[in-house]
Amino acid sequence: MTHLIPQILGDQVLRVLDIGARGRLAPRFAPMSARVEIIGFEPNAAECDRLNVSLRRSDWRDARVLPYAVGRTAADRPFFVTEAPELSSLLEPLAEAVGRPGWRVNKIERVDTVSLDDLAASGELPQPIDFIKVDTQGSELEILRSGEGRVIDGLLGIAAEVEFRELYRDQPLFSEIESCLRGHGFELVLLEPAHLRTDWPFARKRTSYADALFLRGRDWLATPRPEDAQRRLLALYLLHGLYAEAQGQAAALGPAVAAAVAAEYGALGRGDFRWRLRLMMESLRCAASPTIANRHRLTRLSRIALTPDGRSWPVDPP
Questions:
Q1: 276 and 161 fall within a common domain
Q2: Which is higher by pLDDT, 13 or 218?
Q3: Range with the poorest average pLDDT among 54-58, 61-65, 143-147, 313-317
């Protein structure tokens, strides 16, 4: 369901930053990697090298990973390396408060931080940047504010991990990040909450963190914008499955674009019955044997559908 997006973009590409790129670069953009220029940031030298080697075999239009830790200013900072590397941060983890494996600090390294504005001024960041994905274990707001001079006002979207409780010492929480981005004209459009595991099997899990998606919305579109920027924003809405909202934006680009979006994303078509049948079978399996694996499988299935091109997409159940 991504083949319409290149038609909407025309000869344009999307420029994406992935800050905290451990693992792999921005998987959300992988289905249309040939139309994406992406820059990752990973301060761990070994992981940065591994990612750059893997990118030699990738399909990205252009991709590289920079060995920088991003911060509000250029400074020499402590970096807390935890038992689980993906939990490492510029902020001190509150291991005792969290009470889960992997959060204890193994060592403290020193890293040099650099701001997004400084990188843009030096030419290392091409302009405009369309989208930032930031997942840095508590320092997300500091990073976004480091681009308030040259980067953030040109963005079309931001995906950030946000917390609702303090997992790292003195970290900003969701309300502060949302307030900052709302002040820059972004709207919160998706929030996918998660919780930390607990040893209490029957206890309700406290919402601890979430993946939040912020995009430009009606207020931004109320001011005349270049058509190329509107097309890139429409591509971001479609890529994140926000089809109903995308339809309204497509109308501003003309009836032909609106009709194409409606035809491509308006219905699931022949995948509907198969999805319903699988959901019924998994429901029966879960009722007979409500194991964690079966419950997870049912939850995943209830939120996706297989489309005719064989891809899975998040949808509201038809």
A1: no
A2: 13
A3: 313-317
